[in-house]
Amino acid sequence: MNIQFGEALKNLRTNKGLSQIELADKLFVDRSTIARWENGSRMPDAVMILKIADRLDTDVETLMNLAAEKNETPCVILLDDEKIIMQGSLAILKEVLANAEISGFTVPSEALAYAKTNRVDLAFLDIKMGRISGLDVCKELLDCNPKMNVIFLTAYTDYSLDAWSTGASGFMLKPITADGIRKQLAKMHYPLITGGRDE
């Protein structure tokens, strides 16, 4: 996530007296695109930053520098439909990922809604959740952010082959452990700064 760029864009837009829709019209994008840029979950490319600077009459170098800055706080979600297991797993994740922003969900649709408005760096997904499969949730999450790391959690080894076909970074059997998480973090497709112990 890049909160600094998002806040700067919002301030520039409001100082010009423009709504998100009005700025979107000037840039020929959807209003939802502006919203994602402003909340830091998405970033415009260099060509679009040039257009933004022109439309908002601001210094392009400042915008480029803000776009290059990264928020070092990883955004992590955990999805498990069993509340007790989720709470225990959250405690372990908070120990290992000390500087991460971690959110837990028991309902897949809520996790997906969160991922659509926040740039999630790492998702821990239960595979078997009633009628909904974590494998399907994974596909939707990766549509939101193709560079998201996904680690599957399950009590059933039968799902391991299906899990690997989704593009996930890892697979863990429940119950999870701090050491198990650390091993998975070392194998992620897109490394992140975790801030955990023994790093």
Concise overview:
The protein is of the alpha/beta class and 199 residues long. Helices cover 49% and strands 15% of the residues. The protein folds into two domains: 3-68, lambda repressor-like DNA-binding domains (434 Repressor (Amino-terminal Domain), Orthogonal Bundle); 75-185, Rossmann fold (3-Layer(aba) Sandwich).
Word description of this protein:
The chain is an alpha/beta fold and 199 residues long. It has two domains: 3-68, lambda repressor-like DNA-binding domains (434 Repressor (Amino-terminal Domain), Orthogonal Bundle), CATH 1.10.260; 75-185, Response regulator (Rossmann fold), CATH 3.40.50.2300. Helices cover 49% and strands 15% of the residues. The chain is built from ten helices and seven strands. It has helices at 3-15, 20-27, 31-39, 46-55, 60-68, 83-96, 108-117, 134-144, 160-164, 178-185; strands at residues 75-79, 101-105, 122-126, 128-129, 132-133, 149-154, 170-173. A five-stranded parallel β-sheet has the order 2-1-3-6-7, sandwiched between helices. Strand 6 (149-154), helix 9 (160-164) and strand 7 (170-173) form a beta-alpha-beta unit. It is elongated, with a radius of gyration of 19 Å. The relative contact order is 0.12. Mean pLDDT is 86; it is low at 195-199.
| Share of residues in strands | 5-15%
The residue ranges in which pLDDT falls below 50 over 5 or more consecutive positions are: 195-199
Mean pLDDT: 86
The portion of residues assigned to helices is: 40-55%
User: What characteristic shape results from the CA principal axes?
Assistant: elongated
CATH architecture of the largest domain: 3-Layer(aba) Sandwich
The count of domains is 2
CATH topological fold name of the largest domain: Rossmann fold
Q: Helix and strand succession?
A: HHHHHEHEHEEEHEHEH
